[in-house]
């Protein structure tokens, strides 16, 4: 992992992805992500907490992924 780089976590609300995203952010990288649970309105408090840590959240439709970002996808995400 390179500090001060940008990462996009697909499935950021998951039990494996969320801690990983927070570790990456704590090391100085820009972190953003998406999660279908957020899109479905489930566990809004969790996603409010994530956003409160400076993580930009996007719909899980690919629209949030920017050129030059490293995409990190959960194994729970289907093709």
Protein model, in words:
By secondary structure, the chain is of the alpha/beta class. The longest helix has 10 residues, at 17-26. It contains three helices and four strands, in the order E-H-E-H-H-E-E. Helix 1 links the parallel strand 1 and strand 2 (30-34). Helix content is 29%, strand content 22%. The termini are far apart. The protein has a four-stranded parallel β-sheet. The model has no long low-confidence stretch (mean pLDDT 93).
Mean pLDDT: 93
The main pleated sheet reads as: 4 strands, parallel
Order of helices and strands: EHEHHEE
The chain-level structural class is: alpha/beta
Q: What proportion of the residues is helical, as a percent range?
A: 25-40%
The stretches of 5 or more residues where confidence is low (pLDDT under 50) are none
Strand content: 15-25%
Helix count equals 3
The tally of beta strands, per DSSP, is 4
How would you sum up the global shape? globular
N- to C-terminal distance: 24 Å
Radius of gyration: 11 Å
> In order across it, which strands form the biggest sheet?
3-2-1-4
